[in-house]
Amino acid sequence: MPSHTAKIPLKNTYGKATELTAKWVVFASVLLPASLPGTEAAHQLVVCVRNKCTPEEALNVLRELPNPLREGDAASTHASQYNPLKIDVFVQTLLNLGSKSISHSFAAISKFHYVFKILAESEEAQICVLRNVWELWQKHPQMVCVLVDKMLKTQIVECSAVATWLFSKEMAPHFIHSCLWEILHLTIDKMNKHVSKLSKELQEAREALARADSSSSDSEDESGSKKKKDQDKPTEEAVERMEERLEMGHTDQKRLFLIVFQRFIMILSEHLVRADTDARDPLTHWYTSTVGRLTQVFLLHHEQVQKYSSTLETLLFTQDLDPHILDVFHQFLALTA
Questions:
Q1: For a tag site, which of 11, 37, 44, 129 has the least CB within 10 Å?
Q2: Whole-model pTM above 0.90?
Q3: Which InterPro entries match (predicted)?
């Protein structure tokens, strides 16, 4: 897909000059060649958003954009139906328009939340959204953290999509940037808090159900008081639904940790193999830093990781793994024994 980037100076939320990298700079009265896919739609979208359009009207502007994944060889290798050109145009144009401040960006995301959800249904599409956020704001990485956090909270992107994006090849040059690790930990924290909330709600519902059953069997209350207690009492079906949600939460949490640790193992193993092939010392600054980050994930989230330690040992941290990497896992097990 043809691309064009331009550097746009602006004031960030801290009042310091920074640069925004954008593909479509139509909002700044700099129109790109009409032959560039997405240019005309981006221009129309700018006008539409500035005229306070509805999310449905914004989607209508994007409707006719071709899908690069359905052209030529790409059509046979991509089963997903998402359209990366639509996502590119929408995300970069909208966040450009909201780049004046964090509150402007949040307002834009909130107003057009429906469009994000329509365009980014699959994990691949969500990763495409994250790529565009990074491409736009990489000169101001703290803004990336803020926007990713917002998108997680509003469920525009899932935790697994964020983790997969962080460890993707296009992010490799920025891998040891502190901003990415901040995003990784806030993503894991988001998942942990979600599971903790579901667990607490289920426990409270079970306790309320037990109290109600005990009260009804021990004494005959007045009819009014008994009716109120029956209304407050959670049903068996409601408790079962909570149990199902918690089970799903645990499944998502385990999958997130599997993604994170698998990607760590992959990049560290590739580094060690390259070092061995080239007869170089593997203990580089990058390697030391990455092992340190892996250790940090274990320590900061030890309560949650410990629940899945047997799964991790069976699927990922197997005996055929390089001892340098395996030692990190064994040290964690020793600390939590």
A1: 11
A2: no
A3: ARM-type_fold, CBP80, MIF4G-like_typ-2
